Amino acid sequence: MSFAASVLTLYPEMFPGALGLSLAGRALEAGTWSLDAIQIRDFATDRHRTVDDTPAGGGAGMVMRADVLAKAIDHASPPGDTRPRLLMSPRGRPLTQARVRELAAGPGAVILCGRFEGVDQRLIEARGLEEVSVGDFILSGGEPAALVLLDAVVRLLPGVMGNAVSGEEESFENGLLEHPHYTRPQEFEGRPIPEVLISGNHKKIAAWRRAESEALTKTRRPDLVQNGKTKG
């Protein structure tokens, strides 16, 4: 069974975007996964196809309406659909490689792309949406975040990457940032490839890569070490 993604958005023309190219694009053509970009405005009830309204209690901006979004979600995810329902939101839990792997092992996902000031909280509660963030920054909408999430998931689907081992040695797979990489030429602008990498001693190479990963993690992402996320 292929991974089925349904994306609810005000801009369906943004999909598949980059996901139609390279590994993800070939996997999409091969049927390894599917993508359905659904226009939220199609579920509005007025002639202006309104999907938002002013925030209760006052304030700047607009809020996406619960009634319109509920109809869109119910269309994309009818009773019996076991796919998780995700809302791309800066206040969501940070997306991790572990969560990406869980999603890749499942039947797919229904992804709501927020816009404006956000989504009516009642919709989030009523439809059991899992809020997901791709970083501590604000985007103009949830579409770029959804593309990031799907790219991370699709590349882990069986057969998408030519060498499955590649995915096992990347950053965050073992709680560490990935070690540096080198390739030909053996010397570049006076900088040689570290001797250990051309020694042919696989045990020493593995130890060097582990040490480099640990050093990079401590320097660039001390939070991973402090949170005890690194694994032996």
From TrEMBL:
Keywords: Cytoplasm, Methyltransferase, S-adenosyl-L-methionine, Transferase, tRNA processing. Residues 6-226 form the tRNA methyltransferase TRMD/TRM10-type domain. GO terms for biological process: tRNA N1-guanine methylation. One of its GO terms (molecular function) is tRNA (guanine(37)-N1)-methyltransferase activity. Transmembrane segments: none annotated. It catalyses: guanosine(37) in tRNA + S-adenosyl-L-methionine = N(1)-methylguanosine(37) in tRNA + S-adenosyl-L-homocysteine + H(+). Residues 212-223 have a biased composition (Basic and acidic residues). InterPro entries: Alpha/beta_knot_MTases, tRNA_m1G_MeTrfase_C_sf, tRNA_m1G_MeTrfase_TrmD, tRNA_m1G_MTases_N, tRNA_MeTrfase_TRMD/TRM10. Its EC number is 2.1.1.228. It is found in: Cytoplasm. Pfam families: tRNA_m1G_MT. Residues 212-232 are annotated as: Disordered. One of its GO terms (cellular component) is cytosol. S-adenosyl-L-methionine binds at G114, V134, G135, D136, F137, I138, L139. Homodimer. Belongs to the RNA methyltransferase TrmD family. HAMAP family: TrmD (MF_00605). Specifically methylates guanosine-37 in various tRNAs. This is tRNA (guanine-N(1)-)-methyltransferase. The lineage of its organism: Bacteria, Pseudomonadati, Pseudomonadota, Alphaproteobacteria, Hyphomicrobiales.
